[in-house]
Design brief:
The protein is α/β, with parallel strands linked by helices. 34% of the residues lie in helices and 16% in strands.
Length: 341
Amino acid sequence: MQHQGVHYDTGTMFRGPGYAISTRRTALDMSVVRRELEIVRDDLHANAVRIVGSDLGPMTVVAEIALGLGLEVWFSPAFFEYPLEETGARLVAAAEAATPLYTAHPGRVVFGPGLVVGKSVTERLQRLKGDPVQLSNGKLDEYLAVLMPRLRAVFDGPLTYASLTFEQVDWGPFDYVGVDHYREARTKDRYVEMLQPFLSTGKPVIVTEFGMRTYRGAESSGTLGFGVIDTTRLWLHTRPVIGRFVRPRLKGVFQRDEAMQARELADTLDELERSEVAGALLSTFVTPGSYTDDDPRYDLDMDSMSLVKSLPDGRHGIVYPDMPWEPKEAFAAVAHHFAGH
């Protein structure tokens, strides 16, 4: 694969009725960002990073750091739960923000958002099922047909769209075919086969999102492992005043299984190599708010797809004493693959 990379979240806002929560990366320490991206390049052996977020300011600064380190940038703004017209306006503004990056680093910046709202594949699917308009034949293409000229007017670099496998997209206007493609029990036997319609377009195919959570059974849950955090407690934890009295936890008893996560990611990467896709962007490098814990009830990292586990209480790691996280087994598995086995 020519493009081997990982997601780097600069702070994504998930809006809902009457409230908003985020991935809690809104105040970025750029010295930490630089060090993490150096590790992505030097130790994970990635050559690309998919920079996601809802605030164009931090996204742009992080992209500049990544480009300065020689990494390829897939600039992927995430604007969830806005009306389509406002989403379009925000995407045009994001493309304008990405233009100076591409001008300074031609051939190394790709603009590639997703459009269907929701903070996870599961929520995106639920949103589609609940909105018949979005399921209507041609509606997505109609929207993209209007949006693409607006993006082309402000961004001269390559464009893609992070689609879901069942979305019917006219890939003619795009430079790359993009698809979020997760491998789990229901898709394992036909994972590569499902990519064939995308490969048949003749354009380079990028798997824009794939990954695996870190608890036993996530690989066969039938929901990609989503839904193990007590979302009510998580929401209460984000509230002013009351938040400090509510500790986020998992909703049930789960067993940490780093070996499973590492094995599943290694197998997925092997399959993607076999499929001859042009690239794959793994979700995700780090999830800062999902702290690990010795008590499995509070080990929020089990719900994370990240390659490193965030440490609580200001602790730093052993492998990387300057970082507030420790690599998981998956880190080594992905690094081994990216380095060429």
